[in-house]
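Section 3.1: Structural characterization of target chains.
Under the original work plan, the team committed to producing a structural model for every single-chain target entering the pipeline before any wet-lab resources were allocated. The record below documents one such target. The sequence was received from the expression subgroup and is listed exactly as submitted; it comprises 343 residues.
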Amino acid sequence: MCWLIFQSLSFNISLATTLTGLYNGDISSLEIKWGKAMRTEEQQGLLYTAFSYFLWGILPIYWKFLNHVPSDEILANRIFWAFWFMVLVLLVTKRWNHFTKLIKDSLVNKKQLFALVLASLLISINWFVYIFAVNTNQMVEASLGYYINPLVSVLLGVFILKESLSKPQMISFALATIGVLILTISYGQFPWIAITLALSFGLYGLAKKMIKVESDIGLTLETLTVAPIAFGYMVYLMVQGSQSLFSVSIGTDILLVCAGAVTAIPLLFFAKGAQRIPLYMVGFLQYIAPTITLILGIFVYDEVFTFTHMISFLFIWSALTIFTGSRIVDARKRRKQLQKLSA
């Protein structure tokens, strides 16, 4: 088993080395540029973005502390307290006026209002399934969902936005499909957690394209949209006498209330970092989170990871290598074209 995990970690390290070198020419030149640019804005963006994905990767540890609380109640508290935390953030950063203006615009623009409601529902589904997966010891499958999410997002673009697929993307989809089929056959059932996480987040990304707002205001709007439902459910639980908030322990209360901050803080770091680095780099760094989740599931929480899992994940990692590599090559070509035009 240890050998299998070592191989998977080695695969991810070699993936990072190969893809980074592919974009910049060679590893030695990258190291020189890295050393000279330690204090540049791009380096800061890289650190902020990587840290945000690191926080998302270790988030299961937080939910595990709440495994005595039903997933639906955790979700309700997460939404409700995230909204109030973001209200505080907007007030402190003096962006409240931007928020209220966008609310007025959304009420007038029916298309934007629809996208906002859709995005709110989709991210709520995603959060619920992820919390459920973590607290029912299915973190390995949850990590699979976020590994295949970039591929699902492109596939959604093909069917909904009528975008075309390149040959490397077609090969990536074929390999990923084989990987998912292997898991389906070995499980004896469809990996619904992984697919639901990938689809809900992919559709959420499409809905967000219709809203086009900064992430802090976007999260506040999304949580505002579903906060009344979340609060209503919390009140219902209290009336039924089955709520965990303010009835189990002070520790549980603190964890449930702080779920809002835990939700928002990684997003704020991501927003601060993503705007400072190229899109291809953001796409590559996103694999940090599912890799950490996978490692936690296997080593910390003793989830099953068989040889069949390894074969399936190797197909998916191979698909991601080709997919991400093709995007980096495309980015490199675009950069050269821009350099020629500006020369």
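The chain has 14 helices and no strands.
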